[in-house]
Structure formats: C-alpha cells, structure tokens
Amino acid sequence: MWATSAATLAYSSAKLRRDFDERVPPLMGVLGAFLFAAQMINFTIPGTGSSGHLAGGILLTILLGPHAAFLSIASVLVVQALFFADGGLLALGCNIFNMAFVPAFMVFPLFRRLAGNAPGRLRLNVAILAAALVALQLGAFAVVLETTCSGIATLPFASFLLMMQPIHLAIGVVEGLVTVAVLGLAQKARPDLLRGSLEGRFDLGGKRVLLAFLVAALLVGGGLSRYASVLPDGLEWAVGKLTGKTELEASSGVHAALGAVQNKTALLSGYQLPAPARKEPGPASEKATAAGSGTGVAGVVGAVLTLAVACFCPYLFRGRRRTKPEI
Amino acid sequence: MTSIEGALLDFKRLDRLAAGDTALHRLDPRAKVIVTFVFIVTVVSFGRYELSALVPFFLFPAILVGLGNLPAGYLARKVALLCPFALVIGLFNPLFDRAVALQLGPLAISAGWISCASIVVRAALTVGAAFVLLALTGFPAICSALERLGLPGMFVVQLHFLYRYIFVLGEEGGQASRALELRSFGAKRPSLATYGSLVGHLLLRTWLRAERVHRAMLARGFSGAFPTRTVGRFGMAEAAFVAGWTAFFLFLRLNNGAQLLGSLLTGHFS
Amino acid sequence: MSHHIVEVKNLRHVYPDGTEALKGVSFRIHHGESVAIIGANGAGKSTLLLHLNGYHSPTAGEVRIGDFLLSKGTLPGIRRTVGMVFQDPDDQLFMPTVYDDVAFGPLNLGLNGNELERCVADALERVGAAHLAAKAPYHLSGGEKKRVAIATVLSMSPDILVLDEPASGLDPYARRQLIGLLKEFRHTKIFTSHDLDLVLELCQRVILLKEGEVRADGPAAEILRDERLLAECRLEVPLSLQGCPICGKRQG
Ligand SMILES: Nc1ncnc2c1ncn2[C@@H]1O[C@H](COP(=O)(O)OP(=O)(O)OP(=O)(O)O)[C@@H](O)[C@H]1O
Ligand SMILES: [Mg+2]
C-alpha cells in the first residue's frame, strides 16, 4: 500500500509538473485546507441522530481532476496523521490509497462515463451520488483487505467484511447527498467550477495508460511490500532475513552469543530469554515463546524499570538546564 | 475530531514549541526526520506478540523531550488521547486469540491480550515520536527536509500551502459554524441541507481565495517554479545523531533491552 | 521619466456574471505622484487596481504603464515595475515564514546569497518588522500581517507602488508608521482607502470613483472639502477638515 501510494504520488507530481498550470498549486493547497475545515464541521445524519462529516474525496476529484486531487487529499491525510494521529502514522499508506487513490483514479473514470460531457442537472447529480457510493464501498473493501493482510487485528475476514460494507453503504449515500448539495450550490454561483471535469480536461489519457499504470503500481507495490513494507508481517520478515534472527533460528548467530553473554552477566539464570526458544524451535510454539520470552518476570521487571527511567528522563534533563543559568 | 478552534490552537501550540532553541532544535531537520523514520520502522518491525522488548523504546521520545525542553505532560496527554483508537483496533484480538501465553501467578494472560497491548504500545510509541519530531522541528521544516530527501517538489509545495491555509480556512469554517450555531437555537448540529449550503459557501470562498493567492503570487514574479532557499547543513552533529540513535535502535531490535536489564537486576538482588 | 507614467483610457470591466464594475475610466498619473482612489464600497476601486497589474484584462479600453501597453507580452516586465499590496494580507502571505515570504519575490527575480539577505532584511526593517522574520504568517496579528505584506512588495524595489486599503485594521501607532513609510517611498504611489484623513496627509491628488465612473479628479484639498460631492458619493469630509465639534472653528 505504501508503495502504491508512493508510486502514485510520484506519478501525479510528475504529471502535474509536465502539464503545468500555474493556477493549480494555490488551488490545490487552498482546497486541501478547505477539505480539512469542512471535515471538522459535523452534521446530523437524518433518521439516526448520529453525526458525520464529509470525506470529500469525490468532491475534490471532480473539482481538481484526479492528479491534483490525489496530491491534495494525500496532503490532508498526512497532516491529519501527523497532528491528530488520525488513523495512525502506520496506516497512512493505506489511508492514502483508500481515500485518495480510490476516488481519484478508480472512481473518477466511472464518474466521467456516467456524467458524459454536458450532463443535465439530474444526470450530473446521479453521477455524483453513484461515484460517492462506489468510492466508499471500494474504500471499505480496501480497509478490510488491508487489515486482514497486515495481520494487525485478528478479526476474521468475512465477518469484518459483513460489518463494514453495509455501514459504508449508508455513509456513501450521505456523502453522495452532501457532495451533490455542495457542488450544486457552488456551481450555481460559479458555473466555471466544474468545467474542467465535465469537458473532459482531466481525463486520464486513455484506458490503456491507466491500466498499465495500475498494473505497474500493483506489481511494484506487491514486490516492494514483500521486502520493505511497513506493514508488520512483511517487515518482520525482512528484518529477520537481514539479521539472521528468524524466530525459527533463535539459537543461531547473534542470539546464541547474546545468550552466552547473558549467562555470564546474570547471576540468576532461570529467567533467561532464549532458553525455551532453543529447545523447541517449531512454528507452532513460535507465538507462545515469543510472548513468553518477552514477559517472563525478568521482562516485566525490566520493562517497568525502563518505563520509569523514560518517564523520569524529561525532568532529569530539565532539572539540569534550570540550574545551569544560575551558576 | 475536535472542534476547529481547538485543533487550530493545537497546531499553533506545536508550532510554537518548534521555535525553541536547544541543540536539538538547531539540528538539521533531515537528521531528525531520518531518525524518527528509523525509529518507527524498527518499532513496527516487532512481532505482534512482542511487548516488553518494545518498552525500552520509550527512552527515545523521553530523552528528546528532556533535551529539547518540551512540555512532557502536554505531549503525553496528546498521545494518551489516541490510545482508545488503538485499543479499538486491538480489542478484537483477545476475543479471537485465547491461547494462554503467560502465567503470572494465578493470572493467565492470553496471547490475544498481549497482542492487543502490543498494538497500543506501538501506536503510543510511533505517535509519540511523531509529536516529538513535530515539536522539535515544525511542520514546514519537516516538509522541506522531506523534499531534500527526495519527496516530489509538487507534493511539498502542496503540503506547505495546505498548512498555511488551514489556519485561514479553519478560522473561516469556525466562524461559519459558530454563526450557524448562534442562529440554530439549541439544535446542536446542522441538518444535511444546511450543512450542504454551509460547506458550499465555504467552498466558493475558498475558490475565490485561491484566485487571489494566485494573483499575489503572480505579482511577485511567480512563473511556476517555487524558489527554494536551502538552509541548514548535514554536518558532524547530524551524522552522529543519526548514527547513534540508529545503533541504539538496532541494538534494542536485536536484544530485549527490558529483559537484559530485568535479568541483571533480579539476578543481583536474589 | 516617461516610463513611470500610468495611463488608463476608457477602461471598462464587466465581470463574468454581468456586473459592470468599471464604465469607462480614464486618467493619467505622472512619475512621483501620490494618488488616492476613493469611493464607496463597490465603487470599483479594487477592480481598477487589479487592472494596473494585468490580473484583469480590460473588456474595453487600455492600460499603459510607462511606454508599454499592457498585454500578455509586456506583463512580466510590468509586474516587476508595479508592486501590488492586496486588500487581504492572508492572500499575500503564503510561504512558511515571514522571511521566506519576503524573499519569494527577490528569489523569483534571480537574487540570492548576500544580496538576497540584505534585500529582505532591508524591506523588513523599513516596515518595522525585522523581529518577525522567523515567524509563521499565521502567528501574526492583523496589523503585523499588513506590514509584512507591504515588505514583500518593497523587497522587489518596484517603481510604482499600488496598495489596496493599506490602513484598514491598523492600530493608530501602526497607521502612523505606515504613513511615515509611504511618505518615504519616493516613486509613484497609488492606493485606495476609506481613511480620508490618511489620504489628506499623503496625497496631493484624489480620484473619486462612483459606480464605476470617475466622478472627480483633482487636488486632494479641494475634493475632500467638497461636502456635497462627497455626500453624493456616500463619503464624508475627513475629520481634520470638519469644524471642531466644540468651538465650530475650521482648521487650516
Ligand atoms: N469576482 C467578481 N464577480 C462579480 N462581481 C464582482 C466581482 N468582484 C467584484 N464584483 C463587483 O464589482 C463591483 C466593484 O467591486 P470592487 O471590489 O472593485 O469594489 P471596491 O470599490 O473595491 O469596494 P470596497 O470598498 O468594498 O473594497 C461591485 O459591485 C462588486 O459586487
Ligand atoms: Mg476593494
């Protein structure tokens, strides 16, 4: 996911740079900020009493075209991830894919097809609504897929899917309605706002390019994530490979040496970490030993202690700084 | 998400912290970005049942907070705010993964609980590191550092613009929703239709603003390329900073630091 | 010095939605003149100023800066000559820090190194904002933003300075500072303002717009005294020219 998102980022940037329209950078930037602000105003979802906010992927794509919109939405996600830990830093790659790539590159062509070149009010609105629906369904599906693949949560695929899709159907309808309302109002005041995407100025340059690009991105994504993905499993594997510390070979190399060192340093050797791992190096026991190794009494004591040191750290240095000027 | 005003204040607060003047603040942003990245990758690379080995990693944000003279309580509270979200992600694990992994006296702890705790700890670590980076460096400087590390220029410009106008549009959005609240007497949130027109107007204003900004850029000779001024350099201090922390992380990745310390101690006292 | 003349002939401007904001405006401003363009809200002041820098192209008529007719080819040169400060400083300050913002123009002109440093420091010094250099625009107060916005233009050493409402939102001290600053600027100045006392202090000449047309064009002292004319254009005689509210006597 990180790889796909990064590849798209590079591609979109390059594309925008190539057919540069000097009006676009401020527009992208300010619309990104708009999206940000709009997301913080909540509205009531009719009938349910709960509240929601705009996701805005489709809205921005229709206004800016796919490439600019992708960068714009991605930048909003980056800021949210950094400042609010919204969705977490780790999920950023996935988030960019779900909320920027999906609407901009997968749903926008559909919207173009549905809306045609000079749609009437109704046709336009239907196209917007459909695009929003599809975007959220695809997005939700991607979330389920990613979560399952990453192995971070162990919720079974099917039940997770069954939970996510219907919820996002409802959210999609609401998102579609809001997008229709917002664009309708904006278009009344400024008919030129939608001109770009309705006259086909933002078309993705033929299906073949798109397809080739998608395949390339997925290949790169698949290939890279095997080696460098920040998703836990891929990376764990990579690090394991790199250091020779695959859990299966706990007794080899570095580990054994460290075990020996530990043997010498620790007077009481009953709680040493590598011991059980060495005895039963089977894939089935891998889980348990990994956990066990981290949570023996020694582990707990050490953890508490380091935590205490860590908590004390800020004040430790602070104290020194305060006294210094007085000398 | 919090209210707009709250969010903006938060931004400004983190931004002000970045204006501090300690050795860490003065370090080239690239060094800090690289180290934080290595940190996050290392933390994430741990297996899902790893817990105690993660704990020593708290030293990194803690030491930076200390050296950078940052308000520890404030940052800790910000991190704590996030933990419930991580908990939600991890909470399914105890339900599905019931193998007993650890026996602490009469207490049997299942693998699911451990992996759940591991998720929370990891989230706290990565988010904490990100906040510390922000508070030590400031968002614009991070962006510029990323550009010099290879992020596409277009995207960096976009990030700069976004960050700049979040403050302006956030205020506009905040005013609009406050005006709405004042006239909607009690109804806490707008209905869909009202929301649509509120956001629609915000969009129009945004568009006009973008046009004016564009004008202002043209007025000062903008012709497409963003001129950049390179500041800071990657010297010895930066190299040492990166090398030192990377070595530390690598060591902790390969050894369970807490375990080492713990066995040393328990060994000593018994 | 014919190249600093600003000449507008029969300028008309119609916005896309059909609003006719300017209906045949003509005037000629010579080098070194300081001219205020005044008029009620919506009289067309901002629209007129935007023509002086080529953001709007005339629906009819022409704009001439120095020896050049404003057209696509001459635009870059003209934008170098005419420095423009906009009504809302938030539009003008788009870079991460004040320093970057002031440096944006000079960098685009190809300055760098020491020359750039000096140019930026000088511009900030002139508006009394040197201490703000490292700050981000969103940490500034309204008045500070305004001053920095002016610095961003001064750093490009324009021959003609155009300002849209430079004094709005300034506290009395900052306003006084601005007056001093503008008095110091020796080249042509054109600005709009609703602060007629400031106009009186800074300008010899006033162009009075009413609904997109020039209603009067002449010496400031004369026009700003003409109560009937001003009232007709939804303006008032500046306080300093009104009778003293206590003794009823007029100054000067
Ligand atoms: N983008 C636009 N589209 C349509 N009409 C516009 C636009 N901008 C301005 N107008 C109209 O043009 C007329 C002149 O506007 P302008 O902004 O030039 O007024 P102004 O003299 O600067 O007023 P103020 O003192 O309020 O700044 C007004 O009637 C206004 O409604
Ligand atoms: Mg105006």
From TrEMBL, chain B:
The chain crosses the membrane at residues 31-47, 53-72, 108-137, 231-252. One of its GO terms (cellular component) is ATP-binding cassette (ABC) transporter complex. It is found in: Cell membrane. It comes from the Bacteria. GO terms for biological process: cobalt ion transport. It is a multi-pass membrane protein. Keywords: Cell membrane, Membrane, Transmembrane, Transmembrane helix. InterPro entries: ABC/ECF_trnsptr_transmembrane (IPR003339), ECF_CbiQ (IPR012809), ECF_transporter_component (IPR051611). NCBIfam families: ECF_T_CbiQ. This is Cobalt ECF transporter T component CbiQ. It comes from Geomesophilobacter sediminis. The gene is cbiQ.
UniProtKB/TrEMBL annotation, chain C:
Residues 6-236 form the ABC transporter domain. It is found in: Cell membrane. PANTHER family: ENERGY-COUPLING FACTOR TRANSPORTER ATP-BINDING PROTEIN ECFA1 (PTHR43553:SF24), HEAVY METAL TRANSPORTER (PTHR43553). Keywords: ATP-binding, Cell membrane, Membrane, Nucleotide-binding, Translocase, Transport. Pfam families: ABC_tran. CDD domains: ABC_cobalt_CbiO_domain1. GO terms for cellular component: ATP-binding cassette (ABC) transporter complex. GO terms for molecular function: ATP binding; ATP hydrolysis activity; ATPase-coupled transmembrane transporter activity. Belongs to the ABC transporter superfamily. Its main location: membrane. SMART domains: AAA (SM00382). This is ABC transporter ATP-binding protein. Gene3D superfamilies: P-loop containing nucleotide triphosphate hydrolases.
